[in-house]
Amino acid sequence: MNHIAVIPAAYGDRVSLPLPTSLSPSKVSAFKDCALAFRFSAIDKLPEPPSPWATKGTLVHRALQLLFWDEPPGRRSVAAALAKLDRAWAELSVDDEYTGLGLSESEGEEFLDEARALVRRYFELEDPDAVRVVGVELKLEARLGNLTLRGIIDRLELDGDGELVVTDYKTGRSPGANFELSRMAGVHFYALLCEQVLGRRPVRIQLLHLAEPVAISLVPSEQAMRGLRNRTQAIWSAVERACRTEDFRPKVSKLCDFCAYKQHCPVFGGEIPVLGEAALVGAG
Prior knowledge:
The protein has nine helices and five strands, in the order ααααααβββαββαα.
């Protein structure tokens, strides 16, 4: 496998490339999957073209967000959720995230039908009238040493005992047992944010895979939280080191077929763009 050549730092400990200002679950996952793709996204800030899978996820997430925002228990029906989907569709259909897909009229109708099916399948996983919502699309930020952690929780709720539960929706198919732990790592990250910001560790974290549909639930133990804190700090140290040496190495895997930055990757004959002056001011 080809790698990017290591470029020594010319000025001691000075960071040659700007550090991201924070880590989120998606950034942690991106760095672990491919450090070079992480650089393209978080540091070079190369535009990422919209994908039908991500855009469909945006649409369904928005519909469920509106369902829990607008409707009290007793009124969270399938019909209400589909009405929220129509409202979300009215918002998204004129947005670049959707129009950039370039779908034909028939493809757009199929796209919307698939989103409706995902919303209906959600009701096979749980009764939304029984959910005691604390917040939806909840933004949390916390410090962990010299690192800022940020995340957006799809849904935070209380169980029957008044304990916190974190729920994350997934609109793609379940990745299978071999990759499920990496998916759960993101939800563990949200549990860590709750612990840091709210002073309470959730008693349960769950993924709701709407496509199957299937629910996966875990208890975030002290051991799991300690391991996550250590891994997150280690990843941040690796990001700092990669920025200092300008050594972000590509990692060839099946994910390359879906990578938005494949054209820029040296492994596939591309060239790493020169970092623009605007990006050098700071990366987010």
